[in-house]
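I'd like us to work through together how a protein chain folds, taking it slowly. To get us started, please write out a protein record for me. Go ahead whenever you are ready, and we will take it from there:
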Amino acid sequence: MAFRLSRSLLASSWLFSAIILTDAAPSRPNIVFILTDDQDNHMGSLQHMPSLQKHLVHQGTTFERHYCSTAICCPSRVSLWTGQLAHNTNVTNVNPPWGGYPKFVQNGYNDHHLALWLQQSGYNTYYVGKLFNAHTIDNYDSPHVSGYTQSNFFLDPFTYQYYNVSTTKNGAPPTNPVGKYSTDIVAESANEFLDHALQDDSPFFITLAPIAPHALVGEGSLGGFDPPQVAERHEGLFPEYKIPRTPNFNPDSPSGVSWVSKLPKLNDTILDYNDEYQRRRLRSLQAVDEIVESVIDRLEQAGVLEDTFIFYTSDNGYHIGQHRLHPGKTCGFETDINVPLVVRGPGVPAKRVTQVPSSHTDLAPTILRIAGIEVGDKKFDGTPIDIHGKDTEPRSEHAAVEFWGFGLAESLFGRENGPPIYLNNTYKGLRIEAESYGFYYSVWCSNEKELYDMKADPGQLHNLLSSKERDIDATITIAGKQWPLAGVADRLDALMMVLKSCKQQSCAHPWKSLHPSGDVRNFHDALSTEYDDFYSEQVKVSFTNCEAGYIIESEGPQGFHTFEAGEGHADGGIYDIPEQQVLINPDWSLWE
């Protein structure tokens, strides 16, 4: 059976039309963006922040299914500030040649990011804290970060040293305010920024990016990575806290695939260490919670609180003990990719909790929309989030996930000479969440596959595609009906076939790439038996090599079938995804 490609329809799907924002508020709102580092969403960290609960959760909307697309700092932050997935920014790790600030600059994003767009539209823009990895005391001015009215950036190699951070203030040569707790530096800069912003009639955009609760790295760290250091005033808090003993916490049987499936069970010594590790993470977040309180008070005193949107999120999630994992991130598990997002602001419903999926690529277009700025030619892979709860059109139910390189355990345990490193941690993933079904599907560079029914198995313990669990006649319950597991997997793989190399509209509306007629808008629509042959014969996601970065030649097939139904028949061909812009040999000497 063949499937015909409607090239005119598909060609138009790759074009990104401008969004004219006609519903912007008459006066442009202020925006405060609080970005933590490695904050978990599944071990109770938000519940241990009383000011955040009081001022944001109770006065705003919590997005419980918000995702980062790449579960590590720098690629996630670049996606956040550009609205593009990592396979399009080609910033896929934390250091050159695959990532970091030099890669951000090399790939042209110092002239193409959210703060710059806001500044060009009349906003005063401010940033304090960690921006990107590999933003250092040597390259902070090669070039300076664009787009900020005032700034105070933390710089490597001292970014993760809580009492010995190095900063560059408004582009000046680096200084080391030794002995000052780094989150308190963020608080001081927040006050300075507000002093400046509140004296001007222009709207403002302020990003506050403390390193908490990231591990301590560098000087003072015994094992390369240690639990975060804590402000003296918060030492000793939460002495009875223990990581929730969920079913996926240190399970009796291994889970996952690849190196995860080979992890040994953690002993009591490690479990005790991990509990204290998370206690220290919670303690480190108390200084962040104080910033929330301080900023709210200041905005209220100035009479602008009700004209200000406040976003609270983290670059990626974190695991400790789940799936037998040592502290860290880099996995596609829910602990690593599902991150906090709370929004308060004009018209945002209070005490609202939503399960509608969203991702970091959606935040830049969301902020532009509330600022009343046309999207124009900004090549977003995401779409604005409905923070007001008023959109009548159903939102996409998917989030794309991707990773390249190695996994890292941020722990004293696991290896004699330093933290464990797990090679070949390259994979593509897909998270789908709807009211009656939810899935996580992934294909690793080893071509091992995972499929979890997130409604029946939220801890992701039972890989339905493992050789131990899979039955050729197995079925899965979706919306109260049994469906063949093989057909479900075929449809998820086809959707990921689009997303793994998508651009712009094909990222936001991937079903349209598979079904140009628009007859299929979500996973449930795709379950129709009319499409069984189409999906079983679809090109499958696979890798030809495990790589440390995005090398398209190793990413397997780049084309896929499209379905076009006519008078009771289907014809077809292969649609080749447009060639990606991959910088294989950038000139790093410019930043040496």
Summary: Residues 129 and 153 are 5 Å apart (CA to CA).
